[in-house]
Amino acid sequence: MGDKARAEVFASFICETFPEAVSIADVAGGHGDLSYWLAMSGCDPTIIDPRAARFPKWIQRDLRKRQVRGERPHPMRRIVASVEDVDLCEFDLVVALHPDQATEPTVLGCLASGVDFVVVPCCVFPIDGTRYTQEGWVNYLVSLAPGTQCAQLPIRGANMAIFSSFRGCIRRHMGDPPAPTVPPHAPGRRFASRSPSRADIEKGKESALPATPKL
């Protein structure tokens, strides 16, 4: 079951972890919940999604009220396109909350462009069709970029944030030193992760496959 507060919580994590990021691409942003909270935090968000969705009524009402009060939050732009068709270099940061099929293309696009990213994967949609467990999927995504870190968000459902900075502007959480020997899924704390080994990734693949029946 999802968490109604997940967009707000993720936006807070983004702003805390990447305090210098202003221009932010919200991949698979859908109706704009995450972009709304980023805009309220002073960021300049752009939704990248092939679906031409509208902002929900609660966002429209709140924006009208803010306009009446004279407030001017950053406008939320929308690019109706897949992330593969967008030049990510114009953004300070690329974020994605449960982007499903856009998960791996987002990570690969950021690596190719040298753009910082934060992704919270949910459903397993590898490009090559390999079957992973949820943990194996996270380990595989982390393995794509050396130095990628993980943090567990305080939300229900899929809550592991994978993030990497090419500009070295990540702010550490709670003053914790790096803990590369701590498993990346230890509950209840934020930490710098280790990159998974090939054995970790293969284990994630194998455990996702059905057991071979005994004859």
What does this structure look like?
This protein has 215 residues and is α/β, with parallel strands linked by helices. The protein is 29% helix and 16% strand. The chain has six helices and eight strands. The chain has helices at residues 6-17, 33-40, 57-68, 103-113, 134-143, 198-206, and strands at residues 23-27, 44-48, 77-79, 93-97, 116-120, 149-152, 160-164, 190-191. The chain has an eight-stranded mixed beta sheet with strand order 3-2-1-4-5-7-6-8, sandwiched between helices. α1 packs across α2 and α5 (134-143) packs antiparallel against α6 (198-206). The radius of gyration is 18 Å and the shape is globular.
SSE blueprint and pairings:
Blueprint: H1 6-17, E1 23-27, H2 33-40, E2 44-48, H3 57-68, E3 77-79, E4 93-97, H4 103-113, E5 116-120, H5 134-143, E6 149-152, E7 160-164, E8 190-191, H6 198-206
Parallel strand pairs: 1-2, 1-4, 2-3, 4-5
Antiparallel strand pairs: 5-7, 6-7, 6-8
